[in-house]
Design a protein that fits this description.
One of its GO terms (cellular component) is ribonucleoprotein complex. It holds the Pfam family Ribosomal_S17e. This protein has 98 residues and is mainly α. It has a single domain, classed as Orthogonal Bundle (Diphtheria Toxin Repressor, domain 2), CATH 1.10.60.20. It is built from three helices and no strands. It is elongated. The protein starts with a helix and ends with a helix.
Length: 98
């Protein structure tokens, strides 16, 4: 595990809920809660944290969207299956009478 990721994950665990999807506010927060040897290291950690939180938020949104789509498909697919079974039965009856 690289240094940036390790530092970022430790900070995320320790200060859960304090970081946001805004890079600038994450930089300011890091200045308050941690001491970095360089501005570059602080910025890399802030960027990693920002991307990590954005991915988590995106994944949660995607998961919720997929559940909504499954519910919509699930509701419509049951009626379609019933309609298709009725059509197949009608075709079978027509074939038997011919």
């Amino acid at each position: 595990m690289n240094r940036i990721r390790r530092i970022a994950m430790q900070l995320l665990e320790r200060y859960d809920g304090m970081f946001s999807t805004d890079f600038e506010s994450n930089k300011e927060l890091l200045d308050k809660i941690a001491i970095f040897r360089s501005k570059e290291l602080r910025n890399e950690v802030a960027g990693y944290i920002t991307r990590h939180i954005m991915r988590k938020a995106s994944a949660q949104t995607t998961t919720m969207d997929e559940k909504d789509k499954e519910d919509e498909v699930g509701d419509g697919s049951n009626s379609s299956n019933i309609e298709n079974e009725g059509v197949e039965k009608a075709n079978t009856v027509a074939d038997d009478t011919a």
